[in-house]
UniProtKB/TrEMBL annotation:
It comes from the Bacteria. This is Rhodanese-related sulfurtransferase. SUPFAM superfamilies: Rhodanese/Cell cycle control phosphatase. Residues 20-126 form the Rhodanese domain. PROSITE patterns: RHODANESE_3. Gene3D superfamilies: Rhodanese-like domain. Keywords: Transferase.
Amino acid sequence: MAVSYAGDVPPQEAYAALESDPAAVLVDVRTTAEWSYVGLPDLTGLGKRVLPVEWQRFPDGSVNERFLDQLRDAGVTEGAPIYFLCRSGVRSAAAAAAATRAGLGPAYNVADGFEGPLDGQGHRSVSGWKVAGLPWRQG
């Protein structure tokens, strides 16, 4: 099955691309609750800001029907590289595919997301943006 977006990249590669390409943007597709209670990537050292746009709404989990409009309203333009991030890389992959279908991007999924998948004991923070030591702040 062909990938419907530009590909999965590790958090360090996404950060390097955001650092080197002024047009590149990071879109955090987690929920408002996650941004508030878990934290957000911090791109202030790069002179950029994270664009928070929910892929699924809190608390019911329904897909945000205005997602693409909200991306554009946040300043995402055609041709700009977009790096999508969620908790573990699942929602962000869906968001990257939707953006690609809408003609935005190239769109990338940040593999393992902000906190990574669950480990054998049911814990997160075993991989992802935070574990990679990339800048973040508490919401």
